[in-house]
Amino acid sequence: MLDAAVKALSQMISPPMRSILWRSIGLALVLIIVLAIGLQRLLSWFATSGAVWLEELLGPGWHSSIDILSWIVSIAAGLGVVFGGIFLMPAITSLVASLFVDDVADIVEREHYPAEQPGVALPFSQAILEGIKTALLTILIYLAALPLVLFAGAGFLIFFLATAWLLGREYFELAAMRFRPPEEAKAMRRDNAATIFTAGLFIAAFVSIPIVNLATPIFAMAFMVHMHKRLSGPRPELIAPARQMR
């Protein structure tokens, strides 16, 4: 696993990968800015009009609790761009990855596995759908863990472990679905859940590093291509008939 991570890191800056790397970073930056500004405006609304609306909905007995929540949200709104950049990064990388998954996988397979049958590119709509589903699931889990971050340090550990599970799951399935039908790829992920979660810890560590995490889709996809190959074992006829028909 460590060898796979090292290979993915070293290949990120190789000449064939640089164009994808810069495009991925550029798109991630645009999405971060747009989503972070949107988050800041949403929090600002809640700190003012939203708090009044919530008190009218719940009743005056909730006044003190809503005041405390409004105060916390006001602080978060002031840090909206920074907050968004940190906590939305895993969701953003999921969306970005869906656009570049096959470009990255093609380069890794061509360089490291030239004697094996190459994978089949995922349909664009399917890749985008997978990215959107993971991004939305990431945001939902993070929102659920947010109170723990605000009131207890354990929330940060929950964020890290959730990121490892979510991103490990997504990137492995994207790598596997180049060779297998979706249901078979998901079944393989479940059968190797512990290994893939451990691999996801590498991705979670990578996405936790500011600036560097803009390249997460490149590293994570290259890493999981290697992991899928190793878990598949020696199997020259990797493309399943059901996958070839797609």
From TrEMBL:
Protein's UniProt keywords contain Transferase? no
Its transmembrane ranges are 20-48, 68-89, 139-167, 196-225
Kindly indicate whether the keyword Transmembrane belongs to this entry. Answer: yes
Q: Which Pfam families match?
A: EI24 (PF07264)
Entry-linked InterPro entries: CysZ/EI24
Task: State the membrane topology.
Answer: Multi-pass membrane protein
* Assigned keywords, A-Z: Membrane, Transmembrane, Transmembrane helix
Quote the subcellular location field of this record: Membrane
Q: What is this protein called?
A: Sulfate transporter family protein
State the organism named in the record. Bradyrhizobium frederickii
